[in-house]
Each structure stands twice: as C-alpha cells, then as structure tokens.
Amino acid sequence: MRRLFGVIVALAFAAGAAVLTWPGVFGLERTFPLVQVISFRAALGAVFAAATVLALLFALIRPLRALALTLALVFGIAAGVNGFTIVQRGTGDESLPDKTATSLRQFAVDMQADVVTLPETTIDTGTRVAELMRDMGRPMWAHHAEYGVTGWGATSTTVLIRPELGDYSVIDSSLDGSSNTSTVPSAVAMPVSGDGPIIVAAHAVAPREDYMAQWRSDLEWLADQCASDNVILAGDFNATLDHMTGLGVDGGTLGRCRDTTSESGNGGVGTWPTNVPAMLGAPIDHVMATPDWTVSGSIVMRTLDGSGSDHRPVVVQLERTGG
Question: C-alpha angle with apex 102: 97 to 103, nearest 5 degrees?
C-alpha cells in the first residue's frame, strides 16, 4: 500500500511539473490560473530547483528515500528545462549595433528612435513627449487610439512616428473600436505616403480571472494584424511567448510576426514589474515584425526601474530584410 501511495504521489507531481514546464503540449497555456504561474518562468525554475534540494534532503530519511529521489529527479528535470528555455530565449544583451540609414529603432532621443509605442498614454502626454523630442532634435508625429473617458491614460494608446518614415494615419476601426483589442485600445497606424511599415501599437488586456476571454481574444486579434506584409507590432501584450503557443503561422510567433527580443538575446528578460529583478519578472512587452524586417539588436532597459513605470522599455533595432 505504501509503495502504491508513493507511485501515485510521484505521478501527480510529475504531471504537475510537466504541465507547468510544457503548458503548450497540453493546450493549457491560455488557461486560468496557469497563465499567471507560467508568466514567471525564471521564478518557477527557481522553485523547482529549491524543491529538488528539499527532496534530496528528505532522501536522507530511509522510509522516504525512493519517493524523495524520484521527486528530486522530476523537480530537477523541470528546473533544468525551465532554465534551458530562459537561456535559449536570451538572458540579456545590452548592446546595439551602430544605426544605419535603413534601420528602424524603437525608443527615444538617446536611442535615435524612429517609432515609440506608449500604451496607457493620452494623446496630450504623447504630444508633449513629441514636442520635447523635437526640441532635442528628434521630431515625431503623435497618433493615438482611445476608449471611454477622454484624457484617462489607461484607456488610451499613443504611438510616435518619425516624419522621415512618411505620413501616417490611425485607421478608423482603431478609432471607433469596431476592430481592436477588447478592453484597452491598440492603434493601427497605416502609411499614407512613403514605404514605411504598418505600425501596430499593441495593448492587450491583463489576464485577470474576469477578463480571460477578452485576453485570449486580444491575442488572436493581434495575431491577425500580422497576416499581411511589412508589419511591426509593438507594445504591452500582457503575454509571454509561452502564452502565444499555437498563434503563429509560417514560423511566426503571432501570425507571421516573429518575436525580435528572443531572436536577439533578450527574450528571457522580464519587462514587468520593475520592482523585482529583471530575470525574475515576466517578459510581457514585445516588439514583433513580419519577415520583411530582420532584428540586428535589442535591449531591455534596466536602468530606468525607478522612473515610475512598472514596465521596462524594450529597444529593438530592425533592418529591412535584404537591405
């Protein structure tokens, strides 16, 4: 009886570890409450590592030895897989190559940004940022989409675009909400002139228990924005790469868009919240692009953690594929 109990316990823990480590295999990557747990893969790996050590200590007790060693093996494998996944996605590369005449860089003046996406930012604030950037020699046009109460940052998303990329306009369906993310707005800016990319300033709702259906719908909508060519999708997705399993096509992460930070050594670095170390946070902010663009470098900014935002800025440099 004791042996049977041990087998059942070991199988239960093995099943739990497998679900947490490979949620996509079981189709549970967008299921509450697993969504919240797997957001913090580094912390999860650390828990599995601690559990491995604890199981080895219990193995010193003879009656528990077989079960404890089995659990140590299960937890050790889970810790190793989680750690390997983080390393594979990238633990941080804080250098960017020199900017070229054809490169597109996402951030502000010091980074010579061409595009800046600002979720939870009103057009008034965005316009003020654009004016400050202009005064510092980096003029930008400000565009936005807004839901609900005018002037409330939580229901507004602003995108700044450098004039050299051409004239842009936010499409009507972003403005009136007829085709947009469900609860907080995204802004789809289309080029009116020039050959610049379609720019989607993304903001998916957070996956709280009462908003799970809307969150899943938002991710599907964002994936749909990457069905065409020449698209750059950037902002607060409130989702890690694990949550996006099955939403890509033709090798993409979301639709045809690929995640640029994981391709440039920063995909495992947490962007939220800023009050915990970056490697223990959740990488939920992304810059994604269709194959028309190739990433040449990225940075998750950790030096601004005390600036007031609970998200870390993500800087990505993109080059047109094939020059």
Answer: 40
Alpha-carbon gap, residue 18 to 321, rounded angstroms: 38
d(CA 176, CA 185): 10
Residues of the chain with pLDDT under 50: none
Predicted pLDDT of residue 1? 67
C-alpha span between 18 and 258 (Å, rounded)? 26
Please name the amino acid found at residue 231: V
CB atoms within 10 A of CB 76: 18
Q: H-helix or E-strand containing 17?
A: helix 2-21
Cα first-last separation, the chain: 68
Residue ranges of E strands in 204-246: 231-236
SS3 136: coil
pLDDT score of 149: 60
Mention every residue, 6+ apart, whose C-beta is less than 8 A from residue 181: 202, 203, 204, 205, 218, 221, 222
Helix, strand, coil percentages for the chain (3-state, nearest 5): 40, 20, 40
pLDDT at 152: 56
